[in-house]
Amino acid sequence: MMKLSCAAFLVFALVLITSSVFYPAMAYPASGRTCGDKCKTRCSKAGVLDRCIKYCGICCQQCKCVPSGTYGNKHECPCYRDMRNSKGKPKCP
């Protein structure tokens, strides 16, 4: 049983490390540009700019990254992608 637990932990750790090694190069990391700058870029084509920047900023503070571009690319930042509001819909723009 202990060997199975150790093997499962190693597989989980490997997946976690692998996913965090490849994606941050594409997303805007928290260092360098501030969340405000990254969210202005992300929300530049949003219909409701102030709301987009507000929620993007919340997500950036918690996730320490913002996907590149103005839409999509959420696979670059899994935390950002997986955040949900109280209704179960995506929280981050």
UniProtKB/TrEMBL annotation:
Keywords, A to Z, come to: Signal
InterPro entries, alphabetized: GASA
A Pfam match: GASA
Q: Where is the signal peptide?
A: 1-27
Q: Which organism is it from?
A: Parasponia andersonii
- Indicate the family of this protein: Belongs to the GASA family.
Query: By what name is this protein known?
Result: Gibberellin regulated protein
